[in-house]
Amino acid sequence: MSDAAPLHRRHRSVLPDWLALYYADPIELTHGEGRHVWDSEGRRYLDFFGGILTTMTAHALPEVTKAVAEQAGRILHTSTLYLNRSMVELAERIARLSHIPDARVFFTTSGTEANDTALLLATTYRRSNQILAMRNSYHGRSFSTVGITGNRSWSPTSLSPLQTLYVHGGVRTKGPFAQLDDQEFTDACVADLRDLLGQTRGQVAALIAEPVQGVGGFTSPPDGLYAAFREVLAAEGILWIADEVQTGWGRTGEHFWGWQAHAQHGPPDIVTFAKGIGNGASIGGVIARAEVMNCLDANSISTFGGSPVTMAAGLANLSYLLENDLQGNARRVGGLLLERLRAVAAPLAGVVEVRGRGLMIGVELESPQAATAVLEAARARGLLIGKGGLRGDVLRIAPPLSLSVTEAEEGATILAEALREVLNCD
Ligand code: PMP
């Protein structure tokens, strides 16, 4: 029995049953540094999943730690009713980076709340509760965001306040469109969108989509799919919301935002972000052009988003990310890692596909049981990875963006060993 076992029992007795934990013998992480974390028994792991969980740049990044400590020593939180210098500064920087004209930024404490706010804006602006979302999508599990999460296995309730229609385009490896090339796939998805719009009554408020589906298993549509959608949507005044919770801040390597692979007709109307920007501090947010952001007749939505401590973390983290060109690092090291994984994993029987963009790499397996077993086998060898996909059959790799070439190679070697053990390839 591990040191974490008594804590696991306490977790089980006081927290909700649905608060899922990875591993048969769950891990208690006690500290981290760079791309590594340590558990309560002193075991060290290379972290290939923290980037998705919230550690965007590196664990215990000294620049962020210092900024948070300094701010915590002054004032922890005031209220959105007072001026907040760091909130204004971070909003200005994000607005500039967003490419959205006349952009306004509102900070929340999580991605779910950011998407809730985006839905509030879109439904109010358009005076409609009809929303288009993607099949297999994930946008959170609050009362409204479950209503736009296409992956029903993640949905704790079906009593959504929204009327949602689900569009094809998120997943390419399975289903009726699996054999199509990029152009044929895009055309089929656009035809599906037009067909759905023909079935709606009155106006639709918005389409919300992840540029690369995260929880859905790191599946990318062909570049330009959302631009093609946008042409159809814009003709009816329907807003485009890009959920950048997993894809923002350079993670996909090639672009700073995931939507930029679909930018032919300009930026989305609304962008939501969260997770990594705080490098562990709870920051989420919404960016929208002023006309959309200011459609609400309210004096605030939340009093806690944008607290000085989280803003200090966000400012320091964003500076580090930009000054060290971590987007470029995601492109270079992510490219190498993808190549390496394609070489060692793709040929194994039981591996369906190795895919990815930047430091967002998915390894799809034939069975969810194998995926669970590979997580355990990788953990036993000192590597943490994640899992996702509609059936839980995709291994998800999203390391901190500062991953080195040596660490990428080490992780690929461990993962290959774990895969070979589970898939009986030796
Ligand atoms: N959107 C996407 C694309 C996500 O992956 C997630 C979290 N996995 C969320 C929204 C919800 O974010 P949070 O967990 O911060 O509420």
UniProtKB/TrEMBL annotation:
Cofactor: pyridoxal 5'-phosphate
Enzyme class: transferase
Swiss-Prot/TrEMBL keywords: Aminotransferase, Pyridoxal phosphate, Transferase
A Gene Ontology molecular function term of the record: transaminase activity
Keyword Nucleotide-binding: no
Protein name in UniProt: alanine--glyoxylate transaminase
A Pfam family recorded for this sequence: Aminotran_3
Assembly and interaction partners: Homotetramer.
Keyword Protein biosynthesis applies: no
Domain of life per record: Bacteria
EC number: 2.6.1.44
InterPro entries assigned: Aminotrans_3, PyrdxlP-dep_Trfase, PyrdxlP-dep_Trfase_major, PyrdxlP-dep_Trfase_small
Family: Belongs to the class-III pyridoxal-phosphate-dependent aminotransferase family.
